[in-house]
Automatic annotation (TrEMBL):
The chain crosses the membrane at residues 29-52, 72-94, 115-134, 154-177, 189-206, 212-232, 244-266, 286-305. One of its GO terms (cellular component) is endoplasmic reticulum membrane. The lineage of its organism: Eukaryota, Metazoa, Chordata, Craniata, Vertebrata. Keywords: Membrane, Protein transport, Translocation, Transmembrane, Transmembrane helix, Transport. SMART domains: TLC. This is Translocating chain-associated membrane protein 1-like 1. It comes from Sphaeramia orbicularis (orbiculate cardinalfish). GO terms for biological process: protein insertion into ER membrane; SRP-dependent cotranslational protein targeting to membrane, translocation. Signal peptide: none annotated.
């Protein structure tokens, strides 16, 4: 991992070398892009990576943006930044906490995962709440579909989506950099791909208002889960956070389904702009609406299925522990019961 001092250096460009020094190599690449701003010849290309593109502001006091192909370059640059921040959090926070807790390999991997995700969810939740407060998306549900297609975004909304896509794409190479166990890779791949597909879909289909409103409560629930798991690893008696998480998890799923059905089932079909047009960014046709609604419903059903299985597993473990405690009766108690029966029989005779 990057930013570490190693006693023995592995062979250059070997797997171990890349894993240990990946943050340093990514930092060099990011610095090369930043240095491009210093020269007039390369400044035009460097700006495409660093700043948000497609400013369409004309006479409005607020800067408005659209999306386009150049956003790929911006996502790539902030993907590099996400890799660097990931290494910094791992090196200077999580690794130091792991040394104090002395966790097993399994718990060590889950602790690192929860630590990284908790930091990201906290940052994204605060950022998302500030955008919702400024844009009034959450106060009036009709804002989710009125005036569709919502091709124009303010700077904060566009930059939020750029950073979200960059973060979840960076999580894919991190599976290799962090030496994630083979049995954990499928589970992490599932939720990483779901995030990439849903967030990118909301961005490309000009559904960024709905996507933002759904992401903020979801991130709150996930933040509570991973924070509770971090406290649990530090002290196994601290499990109260999971109860609150279970309640909010179900509420968040119901909220997601309700807003999705309202938007795709009732709101968008009644708007004036019906039809499909790539040039106008209009995707308000029945096929796309039903596909989006089906994708959201299936994802929520899959999450509820995983949640129910998780709760059943915990309930079985709890019942087994209770049963084992009842079976372990002290050996001195049995003779006392036998003596009592004998005395009772003698008394009756």
């Amino acid at each position: 991992m990057g930013f570490r001092k190693k006693n023995k250096s592995p062979p250059v460009l070997s797997h171990e070398f890349v894993i240990q020094n990946h943050a340093d190599m990514v930092s060099c690449l990011a610095m090369i892009i930043l240095l491009g701003l210093m020269f007039e010849v390369t400044a035009k290309f460097a700006i495409m990576f660093i700043t948000v593109q497609y400013n369409v502001t004309q006479h409005d006091p607020v800067n408005l943006y659209q999306y386009g192909p150049k956003d790929v370059a911006t996502v790539f640059f902030y993907l590099l930044i996400a890799v660097i921040l990931h290494a910094l959090i791992q090196e200077y926070i999580l690794d130091k906490m792991n040394r104090r807790l002395h966790l097993s390999k399994t718990k060590h991997s889950k602790f690192n995962e929860s630590g990284q995700l908790a930091a990201f969810y906290l940052f994204s939740f605060i950022w998302g709440c500030s955008i919702l407060t400024a844009e009034d998306f959450a106060t009036n549900p009709t804002f989710l579909w009125e005036g569709y297609p919502h091709t124009h975004m303010v700077f904060q909304v566009k930059f939020f989506y750029i950073c979200q896509i960059a973060y979840w794409l960076h999580a894919l190479p991190e599976l290799y950099f962090q030496k994630v166990r083979k049995e954990d890779i499928p589970r992490q791949l599932y939720y990483i791909c779901l995030y990439v597909v849903h967030i990118t879909g909301a961005y490309v289909l000009n559904l960024h208002r709905l996507g933002l409103v759904l992401l903020v409560p979801h991130y709150l629930v996930e933040l509570l889960f991973h924070a509770s798991r971090l406290f649990y690893f530090s002290d196994e008696n601290k499990q109260k956070g999971f109860t609150l998480w279970a309640l909010l998890f179900v509420i968040a799923r119901l909220l997601t389904l309700t807003l999705s059905v309202l938007t795709f089932g009732f709101g968008l079909p009644r708007t004036e702009n019906q039809g499909f047009s790539l040039a106008e960014g209009n995707f308000n046709v029945l096929t796309i609406r039903m596909t989006c609604l089906a994708a959201i419903c299936l994802t929520q059903a899959w999450m509820m299925w995983k949640f129910i299985n998780f709760q059943l597993k915990k309930w079985r473990e709890h019942s087994q522990n209770q049963a084992s405690k009842k079976k372990t009766v002290s050996p001195k108690s049995k003779p006392h019961k036998r003596e009592f029966k004998r005395n009772l029989l003698m008394f009756l005779r």
